[in-house]
Design goal:
The protein is an alpha/beta fold and 457 residues long. The protein folds into 2 domains: 4-224, Alpha-Beta Complex (Spore Coat Polysaccharide Biosynthesis Protein SpsA, Chain A), CATH 3.90.550.10; 313-437, Hexapeptide repeat proteins (UDP N-Acetylglucosamine Acyltransferase, domain 1). It is elongated, with a radius of gyration of 31 Å. Bound molecules: uridine-diphosphate-N-acetylglucosamine (UD1) and calcium ion (CA). Residues 101, 103, 226, 228 line the site of calcium ion (CA).
Length: 457
């Protein structure tokens, strides 16, 4: 977009969040709230984006990286003071400024487009985004003249009872002619209850001079929600979550119970996949088509192919290939890869391991730092002993190996193709292909022993 610079105010601590983390970095559906604002600006093709940072500003910088520029506001003296920090960097710039808060993640690109259109069609010095909120509590109120034109914005703390009853609120999103707003900012004073330089006071500076300030009012009041407290955060999350689930359902995903399903914004799910209740899908997870996920599944940053079934399980940073079956009660820890048609069953923990195609680890096992080939059967209770208290060691099991129940593999160890391991073995040495390995004490039966014991008693 030509002749437009966006400025995002994000220097405040967010005192009302009662947090060590700057407010704008708190997450809504898996993403820091300020990132949503930046995404919208990217959709509008606004190249120059300046974020005003202050409280723990380096943390904000680290999180957002190079996609925006930064200006420091060393002392947080108010929103007007924050914007004024851009004066020098914009000295040569002649166009419009789009000013936003880092705490309004629900704003839509459509509405921002309309705000800019109003500003440009009316050739206005300032256009403010407003909404009718019921109740309007917590927001600055928009005060209009009798003829409907904008007179000023008054902060809740400074408003009269009559002004408080006004349901039209300031969204904290504006479009300004650069010269006009910087001139107006010179006139504002911190003479209010909060003793801050309010950006909102600049509106009255303009209208008093006889300039007309325009307004763009959105019908979707929810989208202007600003997050000041944890309660606001949960409200915004609830709304965002509904949007995400609606979009998925429109795209052909069945969500049995939206009320108990949480899916992050960046997650992708293929059509005809069914999500059962109490399921949480987080981060950059991708799920294919025709999967059955849940109930009670938590998946984070993982890639799930088509026709996969996962029940009552936890999956982190792993890859699951098509038609695999996971759970109930399985735990796939980071860097696990489960092959096509493989099965990971009840109470099985997999860590940093590859399980080949059609292999089965069906019951109560721990497989860590292991590489398993195809068509392997791992008996119940098998454990890879991968850690000696100092270092981790690998286990390799080649194709078609049959592992009897309750086997321990003392890593590092390698089991050759087609080998059979007798149940209850503790394997400390490599097993050659197609061998039978038994490593357990031989059974001895002592005739009549139990009977004699009873007689002695
Ligand atoms: C602000 C508006 C209010 C509006 C509401 C909409 C003012 C004075 N009030 O109030 O009219 O209804 O937003 O959500 O503007 N910030 C800085 N430096 C500062 C102070 C704040 O960068 O010195 C940043 C904050 O980090 C935040 C944004 O500005 O991202 C808004 O500040 P906040 O304290 O949340 O303002 P509100 O009280 O919500
Ligand atoms: Ca706010």
């Amino acid at each position: 977009m030509k002749d437009m610079v966006a400025i995002i105010l994000a220097a405040g601590e967010g005192t009302r969040m009662k947090s060590g983390l700057p407010k704008v970095l708190h997450q809504v559906c898996g993403k820091p709230m300020i990132e949503y604002v930046i995404d919208r600006l990217e959709e509008l093709n606004i190249d120059k984006k300046i974020v005003i940072i202050g409280y723990k500003g380096n943390l904000v910088k680290e999180t957002l990286g190079k996609k925006v520029d930064y200006i420091w506001q060393k002392e947080q003296l108010g929103t007007g003071h924050a914007l004024a920090q851009c004066r020098e960097i914009l000295a040569k710039f002649k166009g419009d400024l789009l000013v936003l808060s880092g705490d309004t993640p629900l704003l839509t690109t459509q509405t921002l487009k309309r705000l800019i259109e109003v500003q440009r069609e009316k050739n206005a010095l300032a256009t403010i985004l407003t909404a009718i909120l019921k109740p309007p509590t917590g927001y600055g109120r928009v005060v209009r003249h009798g003829d409907g034109t904008i007179r000023k914005i008054v902060e809740e703390e400074d408003a009269t009872i009559i002004e408080l009853a006004n349901e039209e609120v300031n969204a904290g999103t504006y479009c300004f002619k650069k010269e006009a707003i910087f001139q107006a900012l010179e006139k504002i004073r911190p003479e209010n209850v909060q003793e801050e330089y309010y950006l909102t006071d600049a509106i009255e500076v303009l209208t008093r001079k006889g300039h007309r300030v325009e307004a763009c009012t959105t019908d979707e009041a929810d989208e202007i929600i600003g997050i000041n407290s944890r309660k606001d955060l949960s409200l915004a999350t609830k709304i965002m979550r509904e949007h995400i689930l609606d979009r998925l359902m429109l795209n052909g995903v069945t969500i049995i119970d939206p009320l108990t399903t949480t899916i992050d914004r960046e997650v992708e799910i293929g059509r005809d996949t069914i999500i059962y209740p109490f399921t949480i899908v987080e981060g950059k997870t991708k799920i294919g088509q025709d999967c059955i996920i849940g109930p009670a599944v938590q998946i984070k940053d993982s890639k799930i192919a088509h026709k996969v079934e996962i029940k009552n399980s936890s999956v982190q940073n792993s890859i699951i290939e098509s038609e695999a079956r996971i759970g109930p009660y399985a735990h796939l820890r980071p860097e696990s890869r489960i092959g096509k048609k493989a099965k990971i069953g009840n109470f099985v923990e997999i860590k940093k391991s590859t399980i080949g195609k059609e292999s089965k680890v069906s019951h109560m096992s721990y497989i860590g730092d292991a590489t398993l080939g195809e068509n392997i059967n791992i008996g119940a209770g098998t454990i890879t002993c991968n850690y000696d208290g100092f270092k981790k060691y690998p286990t390799y099991i080649e194709d078609k190996v049959f592992v009897g129940s309750n086997t321990n593999f003392i890593a590092p160890v390698k089991i050759g193709k087609g080998a059979v391991i007798g149940a209850g073995s503790t394997i400390t040495e490599d097993v050659p292909p197609y061998a039978l390995a038994i490593a357990r004490g031989r059974q001895r039966n002592i005739k009549g022993w139990a009977k004699k014991k009873t007689q002695r008693k």
